[in-house]
Protein 1
Amino acid sequence: MYAAPAGVFVLLLFVVPLLLVGQMSASEWPLLQGSRGINLPDNYAGIADDRLFWPAVGFTLKYTVIVVVVLLVLAMGMALLVQERRRGVGFLRTAYFLPVSLGLASASLLFWGFYSPQIGPIDPILEWLGITDEPIRWIGTPNMALFSSIVLVVWKFAGFFMLILMVGLQSIPNEVYEAARVDGASKVQSFFRITLPLLRPSIALCLIISITGSLLAFDQFFILTNGGPDNSTTTVVMMIYREAFRRFDLGSAAALSVVVLLVLLVINIAQFRYLRRGADD
């Protein structure tokens, strides 16, 4: 009886939609007309024929690798900086974590304003400092659009991953570090031979969340760049949106959604196995 509400919630909001997406992916399903019958495997076969599919896959993977690496490295540095209680640490923890409270769509709109040559404060400040002579096209070229989006995501989520890693750091007993110091280990040796191995569960959790979130990136690119310029920042999830709500083809969108779901499932299973193996070691 206690589990029944949660069971109904999962059934209605996860299982039923998942089955419906599976049915859509195997059918010809215009958005405004409903199912026209099974057309398997046409929707799946047509995914690779889309000229934007492989560029979108390549961009999504490139974005994922860069964001995951930058986020984890920066979050680790921030966590090491604020793990111990001392003067000013409380302020730093709050400042680092504050962007997490802002929604991603709101943060994207905020940065769109920052990058705007008409209303943004960044270009006037850079020109006043003498760094640039004219406004920078922050989202006007493929590389700058990618860079600007990464800055937004890192600013938004670095504090969240800092919190996870900080909790992991604080769970490591001080006696381990004291024993290492007695044995003559330096701080660098202690970090690589004690801190990183014992942080393995926290790092694995950060990897799972950051990789999954990056592969499903949508809000920041939809609001900030709208996939441009020249579709250079179009992600796989943006392709799903385009198929469903611009081409009105729910069948193709559902097929692509199923493919993305299976890829994420494989990636997460591999990460969980790696985490479990690390725990057993």
Protein 2
Amino acid sequence: MKHDRWLPYYLIAPSLLFMGAFFLYPFIQIFAEAFTSSDGNVGLANFTRIYQDFNFWPSLKNTLLLTGVVVPLQLVLAIGMALMVTKMNKGRDSILYIWTIPLGISDLAAGIIWLAILEQFGFLNSFLSAVSVIDAPASWLNYQNAFALFLAVVVAEIWRGTAIVLVILVSGMGLIPKEYDEAGQVFGASYWQRLWKITLPMLRPSIQSALILRTLLALEVFAVVMMLGGSDMPVLMSETFDWQFLYQQTGAAAAYAVLIMLISVVITGFYIKFLNVPKEAR
């Protein structure tokens, strides 16, 4: 009986050790380094340093702007795609497989793919030249064409990250009882009324999970931006990388990491509070 009582703790012990070694310890270490200056004093010196850096505000603006544009677009696209998939009788698995192919592609590989398409002598310019739309290859990915560069990153991120939102929403739609939709039809509700009054409210837990996950990933965007924009489009993660490996300033890099975490916590709290998922639906 004694062994039976301790069995659950034995089973979760490996997971706790893993979390402690690879999450809790690095988390504490990052916090300690963020609030410890190079001369050993505890304070906000590292945060002051990154705040005074000329790339701080551009990187913060670019990160928040990317998140604010990409995440809503991905949510709308994923809802539409999920609705299409759930209504299909034939070819559903094939279409879903094709749409989720980007899930198997790393961030860096996705950046290389879109770089090959959008660079000055890439596939897009070659095609536009072949059909006489442009006379000479255009340079889309530089600071002189900031809007085109931002749009390129948005398109690449939407292509790369919509699949994870789609998978979550398709799973959520599969849990909605068909009786609710059938009852709406009996009472004369139109398709759009059933969508707004039945499907989307019932899908709220999945939407909340998808928004939290995708927002966290969007705040940590790095490889795609580095491949397409490089230093012409700084983001918070690229600044973290530069301070750690280029400038060899671990404290400043840790301060950026803590800043990203704080923004993530605030946005996650916003989703949890204002999406207001009922307890019975959690």
